[in-house]
Amino acid sequence: MGRASKYSPEFREQAVELVRATGKTIAEVARDLSINDTTLGNWVHADDAERGVPDKSGLLPLTAVERAELTRLRRENAKLKVEREILQEAAAFFVTESRK
Q1: Counting Cβ atoms within 10 Å, is residue 33 exposed (0-12), middle (13-18) or buried (19+)?
Q2: Could you tell me the pLDDT band of residue 34, with boundaries at 50, 70 and 90?
Q3: Pseudo-torsion of CA 66, 19, 56, 52, nearest 10°?
Q4: How high is the pLDDT of residue 91?
Q5: Distant-in-sequence, close-in-space partners of 46: CB < 8 Å, separation ≥ 6
Q6: 28: buried, middle or exposed (CB in 10 Å: 19+, 13-18, 0-12)?
Q7: 58-98 residue pLDDT tens
Q8: Is 78 exposed, middle or buried (0-12, 13-18, 19+ CB in 10 A)?
Q9: Among the four 6, 47, 55, 86, which has the fewest Cβ within 10 Å?
């Protein structure tokens, strides 16, 4: 799907834990680890989603499993729409042919 990460899952987990345990901001921890603060922020938000922590608006974000399922269902829905359209066109064709 995407490119491989240059950071191991263990490094990601430890970086997120540093944010939680030290009370430092994401930017401070990112600077200490020499990584981009947006990257670390994404990791923290993804971890929050996995833990079921609501976002700032009070909504529960999707977990990685839920995002994968949503992507799969969207693809399946698009495929079914195409198949339905083909069947509708075939039915219309046979109706016009049967009237000739």
Answers
A1: middle
A2: very high
A3: 30
A4: 95
A5: 64
A6: middle
A7: 888 888 888 899 999 999 999 999 999 999 999 999 999 88
A8: exposed
A9: 6
